[in-house]
Amino acid sequence: MEQYQHAYSAIHASADFKHRMVDLMLEHNTPRQPRQERRLVIPAKRKALMIVMAAVLLLLSACAAYAIYWSSTQRAIENATENIEKPAAVVSKEAEAYADIDVKAYSLTAPLTGSATIGDATIQLNSMEVFQDVDGAEYIIRYSALSDKIGFITSFAPTWLEDDRAAQERLTQFDSFCEIGIDAKNFVLTIDGQAFPVYSKPDFEGVPEPASGWNEPGNDTPGTSSLMIRQNPVPITQNSQMNLTGTLYSCDATGQRTGTIGTFSIDFAYEYPAAQAEAIRQKAIERYTQSQANTNAARLENLGNLPTELTPVGLTQDAITIDDVTILDDALLLGYTEDRGWKPADNPSYDYTKPQRELYYLNGYQIEPEVMDMSWSEEKIPEPNADGEYTSRISSSILKIPYYRSAQEMPQEIVVYLTRERYHYDGDTHALVEYKSCYPIDLIFRVNRTTGKVTLPKDDTEKENWIAEQTALIGDGRNNARDYVIHQEKTIGGMTVLLERLIYYPASRTYILYAFIPVIDCEVMPWEIDPVVTLNGETLVAPLNDTYYRSLDPTVYPPFKTNIEEWVDTYGLDANRFAWYQYFYRAPKSMLDMPDSFPLDFSWEVYDLGADATRKFIGTFTYTATIQKDVFQGCDARNMVDDMEWKRPIMDAYGIIN
Fold this sequence. Notes:
Blueprint lengths: L1 H8 L5 H13 L16 H25 L3 H13 L3 H18 L2 E4 L3 E4 L2 E13 L2 E11 L3 E4 L4 H4 L3 H7 L4 E4 H4 L4 E4 L2 E4 L27 E8 L7 E12 L5 E14 L3 H30 L7 E7 L2 E8 L3 E9 L18 E5 L2 E3 L2 E7 L17 E9 L10 E8 L2 E4 L4 E4 L7 E7 L5 E2 L4 H15 L6 E12 L2 E11 L4 E11 L11 E4 L2 E2 L7 H6 L11 H8 L5 E10 L10 E13 L5 E14 L4 E3 L8 H10 L5
Parallel strand pairs: 5-6
Antiparallel strand pairs: 1-3, 2-3, 3-4, 4-9, 7-8, 7-10, 10-11, 12-13, 13-14, 14-18, 15-16, 15-19, 17-18, 19-22, 20-21, 22-23, 24-25, 24-32, 25-26, 26-29, 27-28, 27-30, 30-31
Keywords: Membrane, Transmembrane, Transmembrane helix
């Protein structure tokens, strides 16, 4: 309540005002002659004084009532300030708790010694990676399967063998083989006398999934193979005596077993890498301490650009509360609170931290808000999450919801509707499917863009009518993505580049531009240089992270660079590859505000690998297309991943079988 007391003190009357008020009261309270009749008569001067005093009291009450409402921006500023001013001992305690969690999140690597020779094969232990979660720990054992006479194959299943070029080469180098990935399914790790099976995925379409791979020796990762032990309650913070056992079988070149190579048993000691864990812990403490100061300073700077006076809304449903709202030049600013500890009465085990996402609508137009700030309460949820962390119960956000078109074209009144996603797009059935478990949210109000006045539904009937109106608008197609087909092809230096289409997503106000190269040697190299794209004369740029997330991580990452040596070692120089390229851009303005027809200009410098395994400039591919705003294929914006429907015919036209 301290902020309320300060605010109330700030509106008390001045000393001069108080003296004048007392003098007037004394002047009008001098003794008077007894009245002849008992009539209630108030002198004119006193009546005037009382009216003035009542008005002053009303004004003070109104000011106090206003001051007591602490807006979302003010609360965020207070939170950031308190975080900056925290005593060093408190920050140190928080940093140590953060560091403990950080160590658990790391895969700590400990070297192993031990080996066993079975016939013509040797199993050599290399290292163990350990990872702790809320249920205990996971272990990844890295080992080497070595032999001069036996060719190790991960799996003879065609789905594995066709993509394993190294395995195909070994089939020509050896006469006897071992299907190491399948044999490893029956390996057993014993930790301090307790046995644990090796993890492997369930068989896919009747084909056994391998539990271990096989890589060429000498790579960055130690060993040729790895095993995962998942169901392991043994803590990782202690040394342990372990044993690995298994049986290897011999196969012919078709994968048919021909006999048993032998059974092995290796005893070894696991020593917890305490020095590595402590180094990670100290770095985490330094990172947290520095981030705590820098992040909150950046938050304060960002919050200084936001208005502190917001109009209360106070709509609540289940865990969600819309606190307040105010009008910006080009958007609404919304205060939002989420109680992460809320649980519905009919399902007390429901995990509210993983609901369907919230959807925001302005007059039926879906808008993806920008997170301007976030803060969390000191109070924690009593139950740990999947990572064993106790998360904050209350999450408060300030969201910027951009207008769906220019402010000059926006209506005077805006209907704000917050709901929750009820459907998802099923790529198999090509249809929207309703979520089986969904806790719907329906919060709605109106706000006047000129006065800032907020109007709430007067009753449930009016609320239902407003929602029905918004639902009708939402379903009229205004939120569909706009798919503009370009389909222009150009060939330079033997390489063909197809500029295929531009898709506009109105909710996020973003474009995705698709290009296709049907024949290329190094498909990642074109990512090194982004195309230069202009739309109606304005250069498009990539979308930015939200303001709040930029304050957390302002890092600007360097452009992508191809590791040519690694690429050639992995894939060789095979010019029979193809690739789709998609680039994301922020739309300078809503499509509603674009002219009926406008130009798109595209220029892309493309490089590829030459026959000598060096970077080779192919050429600059330039295109100009005219976009007709209202000539497009409408598609549901949730269908972003199902693009093979139009990609497949294009690939077929170039004779690509994939």
